[in-house]
Amino acid sequence: MGERPVRSVTSAAPSPRGDAEATAGRRGKPPGTRPGAAIEAGFRLLARLRGAPALHPQGLTCAADLEVVDAGGGAWGVPWLDAPGRYTATVRLSRGAGLPRRLPDALGLAVRVDRVDGSDRLLDLLLTGSGRGRITRHVPLPRADALGGPYSSLLRYRVGDRHRTLAAFPRRTRQAPVHGDPVSLADALTTGPLVFDLCADTADGSWRAFAVLTVRTALPLRQEESLGFDIYAHSARRFTPGSTLAAVRRAAYRGSRAGRRGRTRSG
Q: Which positions ≥6 away from 251 have C-beta within 8 Å?
């Protein structure tokens, strides 16, 4: 009696991609999704429609300079803050929602500092109108007057060995309010610079200055030509944004940049 022929069966191993798609399907998620994808897509669409940053679409870009100051309190543990220095900077003052000029809005102060740490490295800071108290320094507070209160990082930075909130306090050098729209800001700069004391909070909740920011002249840039500020791509040694909401904010930055590039190519 002859042996029964053995039928060869080849079983293909499932691909990792197939496993991932199956797992995503079981969880009710479409293939290819990742955390922050919806946020990135939303900011990309908004930036494309506006032809400007997704948030703070109306702004004035200005030439500025930043001088590190020693206000006492010891070393920061940050190379660029623990030595005297004056840096060229670019500032964008903006309105978050683009509401009419006399209405309160979420005012923004974006700062780009050139060649920190003695290299070609850039440092970006993104600050929003806020309060100065222990709680309100973490809360956006809409206002109409660009010099009517501080601007805060809202979330903490890693500064040396400590976590600190950053803030910019405007010096009140004129009596009349300066509305936060580009035209009013440009008019204000024709009569003199806008000056801000840059500070970090301390363990007891008070503020300690580390630099003076002087905004001098408006630059002839259209809204769509404004800089793409990114606090994660442009930070300094031992002076970096914390991890809170980092994935969300990175996704928003990516989407806003991609939307503006798409608008430029199609326009």
A: 35, 36, 37, 39, 40, 43
